[in-house]
Amino acid sequence: MSDKIERSIEELYRDDPERADAVVFGRRTDLSRRGFLGGAGLATMGVAVGGAIPFAENMPAGMIPAAHAQGQPAAPAAQPKGPVYLNFPGKSDKLVVIGERPLVAETPEHLLDDDTTPIDKFYIRNNGQIPEQTKDADAWKITVDGEVNKKLELTLGELKSKFKPVTRRMVLECGGNGRSFFTPQARGNQWTNGGAGCAEWTGVRVADVLKAAGVKSSAVFSGHYGADPHLSGDASKQALSRGVPIKKLMDENNLIVWQMNGQPLPLIHGFPVRLVIAGWPGSTSSKWLNRIWVRDKVHDGQGMGGTSYRVAVKPMVPGDKPDMANFKDLESMPVRSIITNPMNGTKLAAGTREVKLRGASWAGDHTVKQVDLSIDFGATWRSAKVEKAKNKYDWQRWTATVKLPTDGYYEIWTRGTDSRGVMQPHLAGFWNPQGYGGNPMHRIAVLVG
Ligand SMILES: Nc1nc2c(c(=O)[nH]1)N[C@H]1C(S)=C(S)[C@@H](COP(=O)(O)O)O[C@H]1N2
Ligand SMILES: [Mo]
Fold first, then answer.
1. How far is the CA of 174 from the centre of ligand 2 (A)?
2. Are residues 191 and 309 in the same domain?
3. Which positions ≥6 away from 154 have C-beta within 8 Å?
4. Is 99 contained in some domain?
5. Are residues 180 and 280 in the same domain?
6. In this predicted model, what pLDDT tens digit does every residue of 193-246 receive, in sequence order?
7. Model pTM?
8. Range of 222's domain?
9. pLDDT at 39
10. Residue 89 buriedness (CB in 10 A; 0-12 / 13-18 / 19+)
11. Ligand 1 pocket, Cβ-based, cut-off 6 angstroms
């Protein structure tokens, strides 16, 4: 199962989209002449991907070019020379660097195959510099101030001893996860599906701490602060400071944590203490947490307002100049399902007629109702067996077995549906300038024989 197939259709499109179009559709980018694949085009495509394409008649012509980045470690514009792998203490060298300054690295889908994401495989997203490691973790101070009856200045030691610790397995996901699937390309780190992981977090409830401070009725929003210096080194600037409405802040699932998978938080993940705001963009989950400011208005820290972590209220024309009045904060993350085994590009022995699949699905504030799979470019679908979450905001693991009628090149597609019935789209919709909420179906290529 470990051999890689030489080239997927996606790679063909990535390397030379014009040639790929010519191969598939007989002409360059004359959209009117695109039809279903057949004849010489089909034969050439078969050669390109290394095998016959049993369900070629279902291949959605117009969709292939738009999806050429799917399943690739990073979009071509971001990684013109192919993926750059991470070299960082305590981290897998299979994580893909998608930003060097600040350091940002994602987890390819097949590395998200564990029920609980191990620390070495957990994605990294920084906006500023990595702060120096504090020597005395328990002396670390966290301030809770603003619209509270009693300003608190708690050390981590006090936090541990005064409040009830809880452990919960929860997804942390970057607001920009899936950004690389937008066309035209949206501004920012070109995540595929790997800006997410699911860890066991140990800490105390944000709500318990806020209740101890006493939230005033004037409280509207929170502002979260971490100790990481701004990239420029300018001490008057924050690397990142986002917040959430008070109602969300008081959700009993949100934690102030000092452990990840039973270990002290690694420095890169926020040592000695961070926030985990469940189901919302990871940017609200401040690392190196030193202050929660309870505000009487919407927070205006670094990363708030404009088009930052914001999506269009009314759909906008992709690539158009944004109308600044047309944006609202991205709140719950959208539904996503990924295939974590086999890996994209897996080559199976000739005669293989059954493939066991594993994956994960999650949906921000919602649960996952259903995960579907297709091996014939979406013509027919079957459902996976979806496990229950350990606790709210955990991801849901799923398994399925698909039957492949003959040898050849297949794409296996997965799509999740959340508890409200909202399903992943074929392509990233609701384009916005910074590319939030991109959650098209995940596709892998598999070659039998
Ligand atoms: N202090 C601070 N907290 C932060 C960030 C940051 O740059 N500084 N990045 C945020 C973003 S955008 C994400 S997606 C998550 C990533 O957490 P991780 O690096 O532990 O995976 O942390 C969030 N918390
Ligand atoms: Mo993020």
1. 4
2. yes
3. 141, 142, 144, 162, 209
4. no
5. yes
6. 999 999 999 999 999 999 999 999 999 999 999 999 999 999 999 999 999 999
7. 0.91
8. 119-329
9. 65
10. exposed
11. 122-128, 172, 174, 226, 228, 239-240, 269, 282-283, 285-288
